[in-house]
Amino acid sequence: MKRWLAVLLGLAVFAIAGVSFTLMREMYGHALIDRKSAPFEATSAQIDRGEYLARIGNCAGCHTVRGGDAFAGGRVVDTPFGAVYAGNLTPDRATGIGDWSAGAFYRALHDGRSRDGRMLYPAFPYPNFTQITREDSDAIYAYLIHRVKPVHRINTAHTLKFPYDSSLALATWRLLYFKPADQKSDDKQSADTAWHRGAYLVQGLAHCGACHSTRNALGAPLAGHAYDGAMMPLNDWYAPSLTARDEASVADWPLEDIARWLQTGTSLRGTAFGPMAEIVFQSTQYLSDDDARAMATYLKALPVTRGVAFKPSPKTVSSGRAAAADRGSELYKEHCASCHGDAGEGKAGAWPALVGNRTVLMGNTANLFRVVLSGGFAPATASNPQPYGMPPFYHLLKDDDLVALLNHVRSSWGNAAPALTTLDLLHYRDGLRTAATH
Fold first, then answer.
1. Average pLDDT, stretch 52-62?
2. Strands (DSSP E) found in 172-226
């Protein structure tokens, strides 16, 4: 018995030592590279391609403060663990990436490390960007170095809560959840060039899974739940499942409709609002036709499942439509019918149909409440430069009336979603008030 205890103790000590060594290497084993970078020679075509790729990756979306200088950083990314501030990507030599080499830039994308070897927080989506090829990384670098205006702006320090602000915590997260991609092609799908290109864009540069994948308590994607849908931290929007037929799966859409939706944000089956409208406006509207079709090919091929991230709570299954049905019908005629039609049919190119509308019918009602309470616009794109908007109703309708209206919409014209209650609404209305005070 003593011999076995000694063996087990020895194995435990060996394991602890191995983990400790790995963590120390993760934290301190990567030195600064390219203290003095050599001039980077880039062709005009490479710079143009880098500009296109930077748009598809939506780099400016995070690295530009609203109304500020492009790519100068400073925009806050609020997370459950604290605030992370995007860095300065302009070619300023003192505060930006002007002294970075192309190799250092690639390491940031591929390995999630800064030029000095410091670990980057995964709010910068390097778990997705690790898929980006060196060729594409060099093109983006060429664009940022040669075409973006240098701006002197010192990076804002992150304000993360303990223990998430420690190198040990970040090294542990990386050890558990991050492995740089080897970038070998998928032999099973390599013959289908459209699928392969679409997989590369969706998984990597466009980083769709950063919002649409279910995550654990530490913010890491759950294995086996890619694209299953997730609440977006701290903004009460739901990124719907891309694999659930009753949420955002496009498995039964024609390829042309998917590609058109990515480029315009509108289709006969739905309209982009909220964070997705921003993505279309800032990023996917610039997709080439070939790349839009490639992403459509990959998204259409995703396996169809039921969304597992969220299910209707028991209280939403209770009946209760009948008592407020007449009131809901009256409110719909007064506030909604002039745009969405007497029978919820909508108008193509203008107002979305409510019949069969998945935002209306989803078990997770976050987006439905947000759109009705705070309104919004579809993205303005080259093909739809003056989109119609949805006015806010948070100041016009009391809670009971709004619930009656939504229950009417969710139960009319063939719609058959579970009834909502006033309690379902309170969380979202309170969240809207809280957001308005910050």
1. 97
2. none
Are 299 and 246 spatial neighbours (Cβ–Cβ below 8 Å)? Answer: no
Q: Is 41 exposed, middle or buried (0-12, 13-18, 19+ CB in 10 A)?
A: exposed
Number of residues that make up the chain: 438
Cα within 13 Å of Cα(109), Cβ side: 26
**Cβ atoms of 329 and 407 closer than 8 Å:** no
* Cα–Cα distance, 132 to 110 (Å, whole number): 7
Among the listed ranges 28-37, 85-94, 172-181, 380-389, which one has the minimum average pLDDT value?
A: 28-37
Instruction: Please name which of 31, 36, 24, 38 lies closest in space to residue 116, comparing C-alpha atoms.
Output: 31
Secondary structure class of 100 (helix, strand, coil): coil
Token representation of residue 101: 């080499």
Average pLDDT over residues 13-33: 49
Tell me how far apart the alpha carbons of residues 98 and 78 are, in angstroms, rounded to a whole number. Answer: 27
Query: Cα 169–171–172 angle (5° rounding)?
Result: 65
Which pLDDT value is given to residue 190? 54
Q: Residue 77: is its pLDDT beyond 70? A: yes
- Specify whether the CB–CB gap between 294 and 305 falls below 8 A: no
- Asked whether the beta carbons of 228 and 219 are under 8 A apart, the reply is no
**351 three-state secondary structure:** strand
Contact criterion met (CB below 8 Å) for 242 and 227: yes
Reduced to 3 states (helix: H, G, I; strand: E, B; else coil), residue 59 is: helix
131/196 Cα distance (integer angstroms) = 12
What would the two tokens of residue 265 be?
Answer: 């944000």
Count CB atoms within 10 A of the CB of residue 132.
23
Q: Where are the alpha helices (DSSP H) in 265-413?
A: 274-282, 289-301, 321-335, 337-340, 358-361, 366-374, 399-411
DSSP 347: B
Domains for the chain: give ranges and CATH numbers.
22-177 (1.10.760), 193-301 (1.10.760), 314-436 (1.10.760.10)
192: tokens are 């289908």
Task: Label the pairing between strands 266-267 and 238-239.
Answer: unpaired
Phi, psi of 129 (to 5 degrees): -65, -15
pTM of the predicted model as reported, rounded to 2 decimal places: 0.85
What is the per-residue DSSP string for 11-26? Answer: HHHHHHHHHHHHHHHH
Tokens 């400073």, residue?
74
Whose tokens are 């679409």? That residue is: 198
Give dist(CA 158, CA 156) in Å, integer: 6
Q: 252 to each of 120, 156, 249, 308, how far by Cα in Å?
A: 39, 45, 8, 20
**Contact of 148 with 113, CB cutoff 8 Å:** no
